[in-house]
Each structure stands twice: as C-alpha cells, then as structure tokens.
Design a protein that fits this description.
By secondary structure, this protein is mostly beta strands. The protein has two helices and seven strands; from the N terminus they run ββαβββββα. It has a domain of about 90 residues: Roll (Thiol Ester Dehydrase, Chain A), CATH 3.10.129.10. The longest helix is centred in the C-terminal third of the chain and has 11 residues.
C-alpha cells in the first residue's frame, strides 16, 4: 500500500460518545492514554467476532481503496463491513466483518450505546442499520 500523505502520521482516537482520546504519532504510543482514560470510565468497547476473506493479491505499491460501513447497530453491538479494492484494476481483494460490543467494566456485561452515538449512526446511515 502506498502512503499518500504524511497526514497518516497523526491519528485521533474517538470514543462512542464522540469525545477525543488524544492525538498520537506513528507508531502508536497511545496505550498509556487509553488506560488512564479507562480509569475514569466504566465501559470498554471490545471486538467479539471477526471474519475475513482474502480474495486476491495486492503488491506493495498497489493503491488500495478501503471502505468501512456500518452493517447493523444493536443495543450494545456494532456490526461493521470492510472492503478493500485494488484501485488499479477495480478487483475486490479483501472483505471482512467485525462485531464490537460495548461492555460495562463493573458488571462485565454488555452496555447499551449512548443515545448520542446511536443518533449519530442512524442519522448518517439511516434506519436500515437497526434492522437484523
């Protein structure tokens, strides 16, 4: 994959309520900030399922288009679909599905998404993300 811009060297991490964790450099140096912030929060978002299909090759200098879409929003789960397309020949070379769940740290059980997070996703994707 070709690095198109030096802006890839700085990233922001966001929580489901929309607050920014911090900016970090590449390679990431933010785990300490994550653990410090977790001490002030009583929840965590964890990945509970991943499926991936490799459908074709990519060379080091191939330009790739990567997309992430919300497939479904549950009470405490978020289902994401990933696609990678080789921009040179428009061949789909990778697909993946991931399920994330928000967990209450005190009870170690699932916790509903915040109203603001749900409204933002539904506002962007529409009501279809709520259907099974």
């Amino acid at each position: 994959m070709r690095i198109l811009s030096s802006t890839l060297a700085r990233r922001a991490a966001y929580f489901s309520d929309g607050t920014t964790l911090s900016y970090c450099s590449w390679p990431p140096r933010w785990p300490r900030a994550v653990f410090a912030l977790l001490k002030t929060r009583n929840w965590l978002t964890v990945i509970v399922h991943v499926e991936a299909d490799y459908l074709g090759p990519a060379a080091f200098y191939d330009l790739l288009r990567i997309s992430v879409a919300t497939a479904r929003l549950g009470r405490s789960s978020l289902h994401l679909d990933y696609r990678v397309i080789n921009a040179g020949n428009d061949q789909e070379i990778f697909t993946a599905r991931m399920v994330m769940v928000q967990v209450d740290l005190a009870t170690e059980t699932s916790r509903p998404w915040s109203t603001a997070f749900r409204e933002a996703l539904i506002g962007y994707h529409g009501q279809q993300v709520l259907q099974s």
